[in-house]
Design a protein that fits this description.
Distance between the termini of chain C: 35 Å
Strand content of chain C: 15-25%
Helix content of chain C: 25-40%
Structural class of chain B: mainly alpha
Shape of chain B: elongated
Chains: A mainly alpha (about 325), B mainly alpha (about 280), C alpha/beta (about 675)
Helix content of chain B: over 70%
Oligomer: heterotrimer
Distance between the termini of chain B: 16 Å
Largest sheet of chain C: 8 strands, mixed
Number of strands of chain B: 0
Number of strands of chain C: 24
Order of helices and strands of chain B: HHHHHHHHHH
Largest interface: A-B, 46 and 43 residues
Number of helices of chain B: 10
Chain lengths: ~325, ~280, ~675
């Protein structure tokens, strides 16, 4: 029962965070220098036309009114109209881009999770030996490597030198992503390189810690086979911190891959956000940043939930019998 | 000291890391004055030249600017920002994290909530939006932005270190010997946490390079024509097929610095944190 | 009929390659154990006793090597491959460890962890394995076995966890069971239950047992023979009575006389001490391991060394324990001076109805539940009780580290029911605290001079560094630490030295009252006695009052003038030391006294088994807190009404419903 309570508490907090974030985002963007109406109409307009437009766009209304208008619109699913691309409903373009970002995220997940966990476990079990040194070195080196740097190196190797993969990841007009799956490879791989460093190191140290614990010693001295001890006793406990890390980065993976998408020209949420900022398309910026935040908060929530389910100490509260 | 040498032998790569870092510091301080080109000189005869031609050791970019000079020059700003960031964020993080960890209760709860909220937005996006609003960045604004983005991380580490120490009985003993909270936090406890804090600071150094480069890549780096490594990559990305060196060398510069600092940070952690 | 030999160790040695060189953990150990025999291995830290256990199982760290032979039913285990060893581990030889909670996998159910033993060693099916697990739980008198197997380790108490671990070891009916300090993490009364259980299991299943402990009293309960280890070697081995009546090796004799045992009190004797401390053993060392600390050493000790049979079955590596050629230093407990009987001063501390509660996860934990007691100057009040009785919490409120929820604390007339932040410098100076673990109570980054000097500067106002240094040297002399300790960091000291430094720190500012919270519990036996002697001497010399908190009744008996027995936050019994130790007893005092292990194996005690574990401190107790486990419970009145105060004398009272004349009038032994 108390587990359910915890879940509801976190849910409530999540909603509060989202509302607070929406306020913050709206505030930040609205105080940007530059007159929105001016941007729409261009330079050579009469002051009266500007004033009329501002009026019609409701720009002269007080802050809280504009915020509420926007917020209620959100709840209805109406994300507003793009400033730069006149008259285009944001919701129309946003969802498609989000969909692309999701595909990229899934591809990256598919690559990096099994790879990092496998090598992390291997390095942990063979701690001190050569395989461990090699894996650790790779992990260390790639930990702080920016995604675009690994991306550039990959492009140089695979696109320029080997000419094996496309240099950019744009989808030709008229086609869908499904026919062009090879554009996912390099971006997903760039992400993998960064995440590998982080996750494999975490997995390794967690594995080492678990393998030197008292209960593993007790299991081994019970005469259980080593493989069984590693997979059935150690792994479950060693994976917990790693899953937390993977979960914490889900948000970034599904919504924050601005750098990768920009480098490869991949048509996802990140690229859209870049475009919005470059063109100072206010409503679009708000929508994009809010969406990214939404993805972040929800993924944190799901991670907490998953961790609670997997860790018996949280799921079943302790009690003296 | 003997231990340091022993660990060095175990990890020769750390030495490589230190050498590379020293190289870049040296390059930042003296590099630009050693070369004949300036970073903004447009050599129209030699646009997009291959490395080696026309005296351009690493080639030129689309506008004919010498890549090597721009890289050496760019090292100054990136190192300055990253160094200052790791210092500021560590300092601020220690003060905030220590207070949250030591006082616990409501102070800590407030801290955790704020951290939760700050972590809700990816730091890159936050920095981007704000800098995008402010227009082109200066060294000062970049330093401030990246420091703020990383304070939650350093504060967390500081808080963790504090939580470990505060339950030790020497803290209780200090209290009943009449010490003030401030004295306990910074005179008694701090020396016992300095190892973790230094390691965190070096790690931050690497991550700051990463963030500054990424911000430059996203277009909110330093004003052109001041060279910014990240910006160099995005500026020349379109000509990558024809002049890959314009993109590759800045990328390699970033990679070398980041990897070197990571190796160094790992070595420092092995020295300071006694893992038997 | 000679029983079969189950285990024979022949010249077993274990050494480790470390950064500092080769360290020898076990050297030249030879031991024979027959069927259904049990031997207790006694040793302090650094004796190698645990390493020995792991060496028998052939389980050493990567940098360890073993030499010699481990013959289990004739087969040398050290020559077996890893795969072959799996047949023995958990099956023919089983082990139980010190900390039951960390020996169980927190993310697997109890049932699962029990089943896998049968699944792998007996090739049982899942159902068969589960049935076997339930069966063995019943063997250990654990009720509700079906419910238990579905739970996770964190959901049951420490005593039950240890029983589960024993059950796991028992499943395959091993020939040999090795137990490595299995009760050290448990309370005395729980420990007594487990020890009885072990005895019972041995009788029923005819197992051979190796029981490792630092406490001779515990080993006396479960073993027939005792082996004494020091720095990796067995220095003496023999029947427990023989070892106690006439220990041949100087170390054994010194060790036994270090232990504060039943009947020893500070006015009559000083405890024996062993000077020096345990050093690591390098590979080059030969000869007697005890030679540097031995009071009976001669020039021949280093070369001439080997096991000699002193009497049937009783072997010792040296028989000079009673040698007359070297003067007997303090190997027999010597009498303390006549002044040791201390004079009682005027009233110093008055605790009025102290009540301290904590909120934890929505529930209220009543740590201290209405304690009223007084303490006079120059007296030692021993506070004894098991974990959760509130003794440490009470100590913390006195020091000001915690504030009372209700009630008053009056120190010399001044109300000190306030936190340390609000206390004046005078009060802070007058009340000091010595903690259990000196490794944690001394700042590892400071040297000794700073540790003792800082409070001097703040609370005594001695600004001159030279002046402080002079005083610090003086106080260090009093605790038997020389000038060279001034610049050493706490981490460079041994456990005993660290605690001495902590004592020096407390005394340096001349307090009137010192709260000693289990000051010897984290130390080795031979070091404990020197610290106890020190505390006793200093107490007399400076006329300080102590509140001496401990779970060890023998220590309390030794050093206290008055004793207070606590249970679940309340006082059970209070009185002068002799009044509490002798009948009439509160039932809980009686149970405690019967559960405490005795060094003298001839002291046969009627053990009172307390069922269950200490009750939940979050539930409000209306009647007597001990009612749930009391072996002398009167009836339902014990649950519904708080017990009345029964005065036996001006100083002796207890709280119980039992009519005074019906309380025990006979002693425990």
């Amino acid at each position: 029962m108390s587990f359910l309570r915890k879940v509801l508490q976190r849910l409530g907090f999540m909603i509060i965070t989202l509302v607070a974030m929406s306020l913050l985002i709206f505030f930040l963007v609205e105080i940007m220098p530059g007159d929105v109406a001016q941007m729409v109409l261009g330079q050579s307009v009469t002051p009266e036309a500007l004033k009329a437009l501002r009026e019609s766009m409701g720009l002269n209304d007080p802050f809280y009114l504009r915020y509420l208008r926007w917020f209620t619109g959100l709840l209805r699913g109406d994300l507003g109209e793009s400033l730069y691309m006149r008259g285009v409903q944001i919701s129309m373009i946003l969802w498609r881009k989000v969909f692309h970002s999701v595909i990229l995220a899934l591809a990256a997940l598919l690559f990096y999770v099994p790879l990092s966990i496998f090598f992390g476990v291997l390095a942990g079990v063979r701690s001190g030996k050569l395989s461990d040194s090699v894996i650790s070195f790779f992990g260390l080196a790639t930990m702080a490597l920016p995604e675009f740097v690994s991306g550039v190196l990959l492009i140089t190797l695979f696109s320029v030198v080997l000419k094996a993969l496309p240099i950019t990841s744009v989808i030709p007009i008229g086609e869908s992503i499904w026919g062009n799956l090879d554009i996912l490879i390099l971006p997903a791989f760039s992400v993998t390189i960064v995440m590998f460093g982080y996750v494999s190191r975490m997995q390794r140290s967690s594995m080492i810690q678990v393998m030197s614990s008292d209960y593993i010693r007790a299991a081994e001295l019970k005469g259980l086979p080593r493989a069984y001890v590693i997979f059935r006793h150690a792994l479950k406990n060693a994976l917990l911190p790693t899953i937390t890390i993977i979960g914490m980065n889900m948000g970034w993976l599904f919504g924050g891959l601005i750098v990768v998408e920009t480098l490869f020209g991949y048509p996802g949420l990140g690229s859209l956000t870049m475009t919005a900022i470059k063109t100072r398309d206010v409503p679009l910026i708000e929508a994009c940043v809010l969406f990214i935040t939404f993805i972040f908060v929800v993924s944190t929530f799901i991670t907490d939930l998953l961790y609670g389910l997997l860790n018996p100490r949280i799921r079943f509260s302790g009690a003296e019998q | 000291m003997k231990r340091v040498l022993f660990l060095f032998k175990q990890r020769p790569l750390a030495l490589v890391g230190i050498v590379v870092i020293l190289f870049w510091f040296f390059a930042a301080l003296f590099g630009p004055s050693l070369l004949s080109f300036t970073y903004s000189a447009l050599d129209t005869d030699y646009q997009m030249t291959r490395p080696g031609e026309g005296g351009h050791l690493l080639g030129t970019d689309a506008l004919g600017r010498d890549i090597l000079t721009r890289i050496l020059h760019g090292s100054r700003s990136i190192l300055t920002v990253a160094l200052l960031t790791s210092l500021f964020s560590t300092l601020a993080g220690v003060i905030i994290g220590f207070s949250a960890g030591y006082f616990g209760g409501r102070v800590d709860a407030v801290f955790l909530r704020i951290m939760d909220i700050l972590m809700a937005i990816p730091p890159l996006v936050l920095a981007m939006v704000i800098l995008g609003i402010l227009g082109d960045s200066t060294i000062v604004s970049l330093t401030i932005m990246v420091s703020i983005a990383y304070i939650p991380a350093t504060a967390r580490v500081a808080r963790g270190a504090m939580l470990t120490c505060k339950n030790y009985e020497y803290v209780d003993a200090a209290r009943i010997m009449g010490e003030s909270n401030f004295s306990i936090m910074f005179v008694e406890i701090l020396p016992n946490t300095i190892g973790s804090i230094i390691v965190e600071a070096t790690a931050r150094f690497a991550y700051s390079i990463m963030m500054v480069a990424s911000l430059g890549f996203l277009g909110v780096g330093l004003q052109p024509p001041t060279p910014d490594w990240g910006m160099m990559v995005i500026e020349n990305k379109s000509i990558m097929m024809n002049a890959p060196w314009a993109v590759l060398y800045p990328a390699l510069a970033i990679a070398s610095l980041v990897i070197a600092i990571s190796l160094f940070s790992d070595f420092v952690s092995k020295v300071l944190i006694h893992d038997s | 009929m000679i029983p079969d030999t189950i285990l024979k160790l022949r010249c077993l040695g274990v050494s480790y390659r470390t950064y500092y060189g080769t360290v020898v953990a076990v050297r030249d150990v030879s031991l024979t154990l027959g069927e259904n025999e049990s031997v207790g291995i006694i040793g302090e830290s650094g004796s190698g006793k645990s390493t020995l256990a792991y060496a028998i199982m052939d389980y050493l760290a990567a940098n360890g090597t073993s030499t010699g032979e481990v013959l289990f039913k004739g087969e040398n285990l050290l020559e077996k491959s890893r795969k072959e060893m799996r047949e023995y581990r958990g099956n023919r030889i089983a082990m139980v460890y010190q900390n039951p909670y960390s020996s169980l996998n927190p993310s697997l159910t109890i049932g699962r962890q029990l089943d896998e033993v049968s699944l792998f060693h007996r090739n049982s099916s899942k159902d068969e394995a589960r049935a076997a697990s339930i069966e063995v739980l019943k063997d250990l008198y654990l009720g509700d076995a079906e419910g238990l197997v579905r739970r996770y380790p964190h959901q049951i108490s420490g005593g039950m966890q240890q029983r589960i671990c024993i059950a796991m070891a028992l499943l395959c009916r091993p020939d040999l069971m090795i137990m490595d300090e299995p009760t050290t993490a448990l309370d005395v009364t729980t420990e007594a239950v487990i020890l009885d259980l072990v005895k019972d299991l041995r009788d029923r299943f005819k197992m051979s047992l190796i029981y490792i402990s630092h406490d001779i009293g515990i080993v006396n309960k479960v073993s027939d023979r005792i082996a004494v280890m020091y720095r990796g070697e067995i220095v003496e081995i023999g029947p427990k009575k023989g070892i106690f009546d006439r220990p041949e090796h100087p170390y054994t004799r010194a060790l036994i006389n270090c232990i504060p045992r039943s009947g020893l009190v500070k006015e009559q004797v000083r405890l024996n001490t062993i000077p020096g401390y345990v050093r690591k053993r390098s590979a080059e060392e030969h000869g007697c391991p005890f030679v540097d600390r031995c009071g009976k050493r001669t020039s021949g000790c280093v070369e001439r060394y080997g096991m000699i049979e002193q009497s049937p079955g009783h072997f010792a590596a040296c028989d000079r324990a009673y040698a007359k050629d070297v003067p007997d230093e303090s190997i027999i407990p010597t009498a303390a001076g006549p002044e040791a009987a201390c004079q009682e001063g005027e009233l110093l501390l008055k605790i009025e109805d102290l009540y301290k509660a904590f909120r934890s996860r929505g529930k209220t934990v009543r740590a201290v539940d209405g304690v009223s007691v007084t303490l006079h100057r120059n007296n030692v009040l021993g506070v004894v009780g098991e974990s959760g009785c509130g003794k440490s919490t009470m100590g913390y409120t006195l020091s000001g580290l915690l504030t009372p929820t209700k009630g008053r604390l009056l120190f010399d007339g001044v109300d000190i029911s306030i936190s340390w932040k609000k206390r004046s410098k005078e009060i802070l100076r007058e009340i000091q605290h010595i903690f259990q673990n000196p490794g944690r109570s001394l700042n590892p980054s400071f040297n000794i001079e700073t540790i003792i000097g800082r409070p001097m500067k703040r609370l005594l106002g001695i600004k001159s560094r030279a002046e402080r240094r002079k005083r610090i040297e003086e106080i260090l002399r009093k605790v038997d630490l020389g000038k060279e300790y001034l610049l050493r960091k706490a981490t460079q000291l041994s456990g005993g030295e660290m605690q001495r430094a902590a004592v020096a720190r407390a005394f340096a500012i001349a307090p009137d009252l010192i709260i000693c919270d289990e000051p010897t519990s984290a130390l080795d036996v031979s070091v404990q006695s020197s610290v106890l002697n020190l505390l006793s001497d200093l107490q007399y010399e400076s006329a300080v009052a102590y509140i001496f908190i401990s779970h060890d009744l023998h220590v309390i008996n030794y050093i206290s003038d008055y004793i207070m027995v606590m249970y679940l936050g309340r006082i059970c019994e209070y009185g002068k030391r002799d009044e509490v130790i002798s009948p009439p007893y509160h039932p809980y005092t009686e149970a405690l006294l019967s559960a405490v292990p005795e060094v003298d194996p001839s002291l046969m005690k009627r053990t009172i088994r307390l069922e269950g574990s200490p009750p939940n401190p979050t539930k409000k107790i209306i009647g007597c807190p001990f009612a749930g486990r009391c072996h002398k419970k009167v009836g339902s009145i014990c649950d519904t009404t708080p017990p009345p105060k029964v005065d036996f004398s001006e100083s002796h009272f207890l709280y119980c419903h039992i009519p005074p004349d019906k309380l025990s009038t006979n002693g425990i032994t």
